[in-house]
Amino acid sequence: MTVVRRASLTLALLSLTGLVTITGSHAAPPAPEPGTKTVTITRGGQTVERTVLDPVVIDGQEVRRGSVIVHFKNGVSAAAKEEAHRAAAAEQVHELKLPNTDRVDVRPGSEQHALAAYRARSDVDYAQLDAIVKADYTPNDTRFSEMWGMTKIHAPEAWDVTHSTSAVKIAILDCGIYSSSSTYPGPDGFGHIDVRSKVVLEANFSGAADADDWCNHGTHVAGTAAAVTNNASGDAGVGHDAVLMNGKVLGDDGTGAESSVINGLVWAANNNAHVINLSLGSQTACSSGMAAAVNYAWNHGAVVVVAAGNAGSSTPTNLTLCANTLSVAATNSSDARASFSNYGTAVDVAAPGVGILSSDDLGAYSSFDGTSMASPHVAGLAALVWTAGPATNAAVVARINSTATAISGTGVYWAHGRVDAAAAVAPPAPPAMNWAANNSADFDGDHMTDMGALYRGLSPADSLWFAPASGGGSAFQIYFGATSDIPVPGDYNGDGKTDAVIFRPATGLWYGPQTGAAVIVIQMVVGQAGDVPIPGDYDGDGKTDPAFYRPSTGMFFSVLSGGGVKSSTFGGPNDVPVPRDYDADGKTDFGIYRADATADHLGLWYAPLSGGGVFQIYFGAPGDIPVPGDYNGDKRAEAVIFREATGLWYGPFNGAPGLFQLLLGGPGDTAIPGYYDNNLTEDPAIFHKATGMWFALNSGGGVTRIDGLGESSDVPIQKRPALAGGL
Predict the structure, then answer these.
(1) pLDDT (tens digit, 9 = 90+) per residue, 86-112?
(2) pTM for the full model?
(3) Is 699 a catalytic residue?
(4) Exactly one of 71, 217, 377, 416 is catalytic; which is it?
(5) What is the pLDDT of residues 234-268, one digit of tens each?
């Protein structure tokens, strides 16, 4: 019989095939199962016997004795699974919560034989040992008078913005929480006063008799993540009003198996956990089973926060090496890496992890060191961020990473920096407008579209460019270009002013003078007859790049002002190119609008995003003219159509609820949306050729209007040639 002191346990993971809901009753520890042992644990002067795992080392890896994990491919019959288990000499089969996955008891010593039997079958996806995973903490006997970690990450300032909410759930997958279901009496009843009211759901996946915290770890983690806060007692939790789920996946001495964690991850995901904290791991690779369970939780919308480990190694824990986790290293009060903390660019962020004061398993408070203590700082922060704007787990993680403070060691010990709660919950600053990535004829550089800008062919070899100055002063006027040329205005040198540039289809020539200077701003050959010119800023450097769409092959091609080229092929002969910035990264995205693309005659909008991913929506009817633009001012272009027959402008907002919908214009009008007032939001506008009227409904209120300017043959420069079959 092994005697273990409560305060110095090394924690790890334990397996149980079924889910046990704790109701408050205390059962005697079951007789030891094969591969387990009995230990004596001391808690507040009281000793109890608990059953824990008795691991074994196989091929240099500590694993659960007599246990393997097997994952079958989809569609495998029950009979085939039984046949596979017989071939592996299975003694007992436990179905895990991860689909198609079993934990199998085999005779100790025959684990490798069982793996070989499973791996030889074509209906098995993978089979693996049931590895031991350990919690990452080191007890510290010195009690800190203040919770320095909270102020270091600016949690109080974050609480001025949001307290999170009881609708946000943090699952603590650990060795249990000292909750009201415990039978261990504390100073004021059962459970810790600062966490017991926060626990809304419990489940026991370990071999222990209950979901209580007998290893003095899970309660500490839970307190840092979401202890009752602002109650004039004890400690505070970063997550403030968020609630807790107690998923016991660690045994009472801290040893256990991956199969328990797999069950815990799936349980948490199925019960709608917004955040899952795993202050545990092992110095091994991310196994197939663990990767599948993490991905299951991620695909169900959870942010999976993991401790980087306490080996002081550049090789982080297995969970850090799993995709879709947010890994946390530990720092001290000077923002230096804790000597014990694992590190490397596979680790995402750092957080306080030395001398962290939090709730303990006796109903009091203790200070611990470890990445286990750092991780719940970030889990609690994720709960705050969920209520500060981001609507997906990917957005929450991105907000935490992007707002981290780049302390010393960033880029070496961790990728992004030490978390900053106040910055993470602050409304993000609107991205700067990249005018070169947005269509706006602005010859005077005042960041407002010049209403009335036109191109008029005078003779085969001469044309007029004319634009009243939106900021007042003299109009822009230049004689340049042939009647067969296509005007492709843009800011080709990045000085903030639109340049009068033409595209000559016969030769592919792009040519034009710089506005305000007697120099040529661009002269190059890009494209050929039949190409549609689509200038934009495809590399985000603030300068317009010449580009074209070739309908015959569906190819997009741009020569980047910053160097190199960008190309993509995905369109068709009848597609209309609709390049705009659809993801607010300041770069123009190639895009197409395909009319009548579905059986019910909807149009397809499709754009591979320069920031990653794809913008795709089915919207529009035959005959509609696509007029993409940023109609709500969030720097993302919306898929909006102009229905000439009725003057309807209509389309869903991109990434936000609601619709853009109004009536402006009618038959014969040309749509010329632009930035006609100075609020950085695109305005619907039309040019009525019959009367020379230019009219915009300003998003900031009022209208912009010019009457009697232009002739019926004039081309409004603000019209996008790509949007309606050219000029």
Answers:
(1) 999 999 999 999 999 999 999 999 999
(2) 0.62
(3) no
(4) 217
(5) 778 999 999 999 999 999 988 888 999 999 999 99
Q: Which helix or strand (DSSP H or E) is residue 202 part of?
A: strand 199-204
State which H helix or E strand residue 384 sits in. Answer: helix 371-385
Nearest Cα neighbor of 88 from 123, 59, 121 is: 121
For residue 213, the Cα-to-chain-centroid distance in whole angstroms is 33
**Of these residues, 67, 287, 367, 372, which one is catalytic?**
372
Q: 């691991």: which residue's tokens?
A: 55
CA distances 544 to 220, 343, 491, 495, Å, are 55, 42, 5, 11
In degrees and rounded to multiples of 5, residue 107 shows phi and psi of -65, 130
Query: How are strands ordered across the β-sheet holding 659-663?
Result: 625-626, 641-643, 648-652, 659-663
Please give the Cα distance from 164 to 514 (Å, whole number).
53
In this structure, what token pair is assigned to residue 270?
């199925």
Q: How many Cα atoms are found within 13 Å in the side-chain-facing hemisphere of 147? A: 26
Work out the number of other CB atoms within 10 angstroms of the CB of residue 469: 17
pLDDT digits (tens, 9 = 90+) for 64-77: 999 999 999 999 99
CB atoms within 10 A of CB 712: 9
Active site residue 683: no
Output the average pLDDT for the chain.
89
The active-site residue out of 105, 174, 348, 450 is 174
Rounded mean pLDDT, 136-165:
73
* Among the listed residues 134, 127, 97, the one whose alpha carbon sits nearest the alpha carbon of residue 251: 134
Helices (H), 504-655: none
Q: What is the pLDDT of residues 340-385, one digit of tens each?
A: 999 999 999 999 999 999 999 889 999 999 999 999 999 999 999 9
Instruction: From 86, 230, 223, 245, select the one nearest 173 (Cα to Cα).
Output: 245
Q: What are the E-state strand segments in 627-714?
A: 641-643, 648-652, 659-663, 669-671, 685-688, 693-697, 703-706
Contacts of residue 400, Cβ cutoff 8 Å, sequence gap at least 6: 326, 349, 378, 381, 382, 385, 419, 424
Q: How does pLDDT run across 609-651, given as a tens digit for each residue?
A: 998 899 999 999 999 999 999 999 999 999 999 999 999 999 9
**Strands across the sheet with 326-331, in order?**
199-204, 243-248, 169-174, 275-278, 303-307, 326-331, 349-352, 417-418
DSSP for residue 197: G
Distance CA 727, CA 715 (A): 7
Distance from C-alpha of 428 to C-alpha of 446, rounded to nearest angstrom = 25
Helices marked H in 245-335: 258-270, 288-299, 318-321
pLDDT digit string (tens) for 192-214?
989 999 999 999 999 888 999 99
217 is catalytic: yes
